[in-house]
Amino acid sequence: MGITLRDRIRGCLLGGAVGDALGAGIEFASWAQIRSAHGPDGVTGYVPAHGHLGAITDDTQLTAFTVEALLRGAVRSDRGVVSFPLAVWFAYQRWLLTQDVEPVIDPPSPGNVRTSWLLDEPELRGRRAPGATCLAGLARPTPEAPLPAACATSKGCGTVIRSAPFGLFALPWERAAACAGLARECSGLTHGHPTAGYAAGALAWTVRTLVDGVPLRTAVDGALGWLDDAGPDAVETADALRGAVRSATTYGDCVPSPREIEALGGGWVAEEALAVAVRCALPACGEATGDDPGRREAAVRAALLAAVNHGGDSDSTGSLCGQLLGAALGDEVLPAEWVVDVEARGVLLRLADDLWYEVTRGSQLHGDYLPVTRWSARYPGY
Questions:
Q1: Which among 61, 183, 253, 335 is least surrounded, fewest beta carbons within 10 Å?
Q2: What is the chain's percent helix, strand, coil content, to nearest 5?
Q3: Does CATH place domain 12-378 in 1.10.4080.10?
Q4: Digit-coded pLDDT (tens) for 263-296
Q5: With contact defined as beta carbons under 8 Å apart, do 166 and 186 qualify?
Q6: Domain residue spans of the chain
Q7: What is the DSSP letter of 188?
Q8: Torsion angle of alpha carbons 212, 214, 217, 222, nearest 10°?
């Protein structure tokens, strides 16, 4: 049997967490410092971060709350018109609570902002080097309130690392353009620079196409077409993605060296993080690995390690690379010893399966004006 939608959703969320955890312990280190501490090849597995091995960061936390927002928005649609960006806004307010930050919603916070099974998961609580732009952008009374000046001009990668779930929300009528547009709109909740939005949209487009079984290179080409059609504001993201494809074409089946990654950027900003992730993932998704499970897993392992072993935003580039690999190849290609030890694995598997059930069997779980079910109590609208 081939790779199923369920495999790809699980793979995307688990792969993102694995890449996040691989890079968490070296996020702020230079390549020279990484080599000095971990040897000439850099890290070859999990290293201590946030008190233990396999720790996730804010990248995975925010991704989890994005999934929850989409599920709650889907249930909310039973009661009429739904605003998915508003659902995402409230989900990120719940994430603020996990960072020990009190939301400043006006009018005062509705009960649902403090009601979520994710808030009861200790693995999603705690400050794991959260992005200052995300924190500042969410510290507003409403999503319509003006962004702080620093957020209004920011294209930091905190917007793209949380956007894969928009592509996983693979309802039949949600085509890639719709997923990309929603990701771009929700990027603006915290980051005002156009490049931030288009990088988030390009990731969502790519993931949405991958879950349909399209090869990664073809999916990236489709995202580039969307960017080209978008006009001048999307040029920066398109140029970064083309640089990643060009590098992969030049070096064939080889994962990039830290120097090659440096040429694409450190990943601190959105378009660079996406470009590094795509560059590292492309060899593992190419034809050279064939259908041999051993070769494919070895290629995935090499891609994930390449994505974190550089002097840049290692956890973010690792997370994005893992999301792309998992969406393209499913969860079974991810190295088992990394998957079983990654923090929040159980939470992510539950979210992945819940998303799959919503996408494929949502009509059996909730519907217009039906009594409250256990499903709608788990995801009670905004």
A1: 253
A2: 65, 0, 35
A3: yes
A4: 999 999 999 999 999 999 999 998 656 677 788 8
A5: yes
A6: 12-378
A7: T
A8: -60
